[in-house]
Amino acid sequence: MKTFGESVKNAFVLAMEERDYKVGNFKIETVIADDRNQATEAVNVATKLITQDKVNAIVGSVTSKCTIPISEVAQQYGVPMISPTATNPKVTVDKGKRKDYVFRACFIDPFQGTVGAKFALEKGWKTAAILFDQGNDYTIGLKDYFTEAFTKGGGKILATEAYTDKDTDFSAVLTNIAKLNPDVLYLPDYYQKVSLIGKQAREKGIKAVFLGGDGWDSAEIDWEAMDGGYFTNHYSSDDPRPEVQEWVKKYEAKYGAKPDALATLAYDATIILLKAIEDAGTNDQAKIRDAMANIADFQTVSGKITFDKDGNPVKSAAILQIKDKKQVFVTSVAP
């Protein structure tokens, strides 16, 4: 997780330096803290930032397991916060109740399922089978929303098969799926599990196109097994849009590496917050929150941002393809 935190910190610093730590008539002072990806530490850090350092707003945290408890602290104290990368719906909504001081720059897990289905239908694929981890909210969310959008758009789900995170042999379910011959095999899981299933699926003679979500985004995916597969992601450094190419150049010049999706979303989150402060024209936290909620069609690296009623951005997703041992940008798909 160290690289995740460093990407986010680097991008935050770059956004602040670009603006010379100023927004409107305000000089911005920053305090950077590490929650060590532990929920208890996250609460302690957030409480200290608010009660002792007296911060007016927070950019963070990285993972959902830390951001959810931090969001409760921010809401309690009335401090606006925006997470760059925490995708769990509970970050901004708890038991159906909106935490109105909390926003995010990334789309939420279920959104990817919808976008994946839309892409599949646009490619003319009519039938799909799905394998998902029954104990993981991430894969369940993607599965549910893919199913809903795919069937609504006229597609047909031929099989939905559950497994547990301990399973390593998928031959029985894949034998059944091979007989059904679907156009698409939707695999909404992380790269390790997806690689395993993909390899076994090809061994069973399944010809379906593989499709999945941002859990595939790893250099350690089985490039050979997953070759030709597509997945939804937050951004691609190969996206030809000028905003993306300018950002990649800036980040590379400063840090000597291409920015990953986490760095990109952290940069976006920071400039969104600065825009809200500028629009509010005050350090009054309720007014900053209101200005953030009212942001519409704001151009960021990962797309134009408008917030929905739950503080989630409505924006496009990138579709990438696994091809010749690399990720290739294919297109952007709007919700």
Summarize the structure.
With 335 residues, the chain is an alpha/beta fold. It has ten helices and 17 strands. It folds into two domains: 182 residues, Rossmann fold (3-Layer(aba) Sandwich), CATH 3.40.50; 124 residues, Response regulator (Rossmann fold, 3-Layer(aba) Sandwich).
Tell me what the structure shows.
The chain has 2 domains: 2-107 and 240-315, Response regulator (Rossmann fold, 3-Layer(aba) Sandwich); 110-233, Rossmann fold (3-Layer(aba) Sandwich). The two termini are 29 Å apart. The radius of gyration is 20 Å and the shape is elongated. The chain has a 7-stranded mixed beta sheet with strand order 9-8-10-11-12-16-17, with helices on both faces. Strands 3-4-7 form a 3-stranded parallel beta sheet. It has helices at residues 2-18, 39-51, 64-77, 109-122, 137-152, 171-180, 191-203, 242-255, 261-280, 285-293, and strands spanning 22-23, 26-27, 58-59, 81-83, 93-94, 97-98, 102-104, 127-133, 156-163, 184-186, 209-212, 230-233, 298-300, 303-307, 313-314, 317-323, 326-333. Helix 4 packs parallel to helix 5 and helix 9 (261-280) packs across helix 10. The chain has 10 helices and 17 strands. The protein is an alpha/beta fold and 335 residues long. The mean pLDDT is 95.
What are the defining features of this structure?
335 residues; alpha/beta; Rossmann fold; 2 domains; seven-stranded mixed β-sheet; 10 helices; 17 strands; 20% strand
